[in-house]
Amino acid sequence: MAPLKKQTRNPKSVRTCLIANAQLPTRWGRFRVLGFQSGDGAESAVALVMGRPARARAPLLRIHSQCLTGDVFSSSRCDCGWQLQTALKRIARQKCGILIYHLQEGRGIGLLNKLQAYELQDHGSDTVEANEKLGFEADQRNYDICADILHLLAVRSVSLLSNNPEKFLALVQRHIRVVKRVPLEMPVSKMTQKYLTTKKEKLGHLLGRIA
Ligand SMILES: [Zn+2]
Predict the structure, then answer these.
(1) Are 209 and 185 in contact (CB under 8 A)?
(2) Which long-range contacts (CB under 8 A, 24 or more apart) does 74-77 make?
(3) 57, 139, 148, 181: which is the annotated catalytic residue?
(4) CA of 84 to the centre of ligand 1 (A)
(5) Any idea what the Cα angle at residue 146 is, between residues 74 and 42, rounded to 5°?
(6) pTM of the shown model
(7) 68 and 110 in contact (C-beta within 8 Å)?
(8) Are the beta carbons of 139 and 203 closer than 8 angstroms?
(9) Of the residues 141, 144, 156, 209, which is catalytic?
(10) Residues of the chain scoring pLDDT < 70
(11) Is 139 assigned a catalytic role?
(12) Residue 161 Cα, ligand 1 centroid: separation in angstroms?
């Protein structure tokens, strides 16, 4: 990718700064890992970048919201770990793309609240009901920092790896062109059936494998 200077500010978006830019060799190939911080210091995010996405017509983009249990511990409660690894693999296969690791755990409610929501789910609530019982909205994520990162990377058009129409809308509203959506659907298992059905029926996710 083209070199970026630390503390770079984009004239269209003064909220987010590049803090670090380093190599990150992985099992899927060599990425660069970029660290970003919002202008008020309240939020940080990480982007893994391969190739030169600013020069591509519509590079692959995955906005992956943090899921400690799925991403690190390979939890079968959700599809996050599978989606993370599959997205990195697909970007590596194309030798170009961006994965933004969005540090808004548990759809924005935070790690410990998410674990409390798991406890409610163990007693019968679905993911949306559990968040609501804890006093949160079904999905509290905000995508401002993701759009800022794309503007800083000079990426205006993307192919979005996602099943979530909210991410599509969030990017379009923030002046990023989504040329196409690339589905990221894991095979349905007994463990993920209810979780994925709730995503489809209550959150509008585009999941062709769920009846
Ligand atoms: Zn998850």
Answers:
(1) yes
(2) 76/189, 76/191, 76/192, 77/118, 77/121, 77/191, 77/192, 77/195
(3) 139
(4) 10
(5) 90
(6) 0.88
(7) no
(8) yes
(9) 141
(10) 1-14, 210
(11) yes
(12) 16
**What is the Cα–Cα distance from 200 to 128, expressed in whole angstroms?**
11
Identify the structural domains of the chain with CATH numbers, from first to last: 16-104+141-201 (3.40.50.10990)
Distance between CA atoms of residues 134 and 120, nearest Å:
9
Quick: pLDDT tens for 142-186.
Answer: 999 999 999 999 999 999 999 898 899 999 999 999 999 999 888
In the numeric block, the tokens 């970003």 are attached to 36
Q: What is the pLDDT of residue 13?
A: 46
Structure tokens at 174: 């923030």
66 Cα: distance to centroid of ligand 1 (angstroms)? 8
